[in-house]
Amino acid sequence: MFDYASIVSQFIMIIFFISLFIILLGFVKSASFKGRVGEIFVNVNNRVRLDASVYRQLSDVTLRLEDKSSTQIDHIVLSRFGIFVIETKNMKGWIFGSEYQKRWTQSIYGKKNSFQNPLLQNHRHIKALEEFLGIERGLYSIVTFVGESSFKTAMPRNVFKGGAYISYIQSFREELFSEEEIERIVQRLASGRLKRSGQTNKEHVSFLKRGFVQTKVPLYESDPKIICRRCRSVMVERRNRKTQEVFLGCSAYPRCKNTEVFL
Predict the structure, then answer these.
(1) Which of 18, 22, 102, 183 has its CA 20 to 30 A from that of 252?
(2) 188: which residues sit within 8 A by CB, 6+ positions away?
């Protein structure tokens, strides 16, 4: 007689392991897993190649701003020579983009995918840091692509592949902050950042969805009205009194201090 119970048990085990494999494969291919791998690469690279007596590092920093919005920063490297804000992208394929394009393009396996210009994304991180820390000097944007990708257009000088950004950080030698200032900034970030947890990530994603998806209002619209990402007021053209640089400022200032680069 056949041992039907044994056969059924073995069949269930096979189904279980196949299902587990499919789940793990899906997780490994997920954007969140790839993003975490990229962040680990940058963390290790920073610790190995940057002198710990000169450079301080904070990673996965989520801040709550005055208008109750939140911003999530991959990496912050702090030194007397500047504060470097690093946005990490773990992507494959060919990458096309330029400094002032709103969207960049990834070409892989014959398909083209559009994604947000990481320089503009990191610009908002820097503006958020300026507001949170109350400083307007010495903050520098860096974007690094990890993974099997290659640039097919000329990239700005602060966009890199892999660990090439380290030399860029080390090229800054003018002292802008004292050791005491850096220590105060590190303590401010350490005490003011939101707790690193799944709940914090969930709340941040929920904010992004409320602000950018449900309202279905892009940053730069086709009509003359440009909408503030933080409070949904109209952005207006302003000019820096010192540099004469034109930028976009929120019409709700000083209640909302959001600014954007003028495209």
Answers:
(1) 102
(2) 132, 133
Looking at the fold, whether 148 and 198 belong to one and the same domain comes out as yes
Residue type, 165: Y
Please report where in the chains the tokens 């820097």 appear, as a residue.
126
- The answer to whether residue 26 sits within a structural domain is no
Per-residue pLDDT of the chain (263 residues; tens, 9 = 90+): 556 667 667 767 777 667 666 665 554 455 565 556 778 889 999 999 999 999 999 999 999 888 777 889 999 999 999 999 999 999 999 999 998 888 899 999 889 988 889 998 899 899 999 999 999 899 999 999 998 899 999 999 999 999 999 999 999 999 999 999 999 999 999 999 988 666 666 665 555 545 443 333 344 333 345 667 777 677 777 777 776 666 778 888 888 888 876 44
CB atoms within 10 A of CB 245: 11
Question: What is the count of structural domains for the chain?
Answer: 2
| Domain match, 42 and 112 both | yes
Indicate whether this model's pTM tops 0.85: no
Query: CB neighbours (10 Å) of residue 179?
Result: 11
Residue 97 lies in a domain: yes
Residue 65, token pair as written in the block:
């701003």
Q: Domain check: are 60 and 152 in the same one? A: yes
Q: Is residue 234 within 8 Å of residue 240, measured between CB atoms?
A: no
If asked whether residues 128 and 209 sit together in one domain, one would say: yes
Cβ contacts of 212 within 8 Å, gap of 6 or more:
229
Residue numbers of the domain that contains 79: 31-215
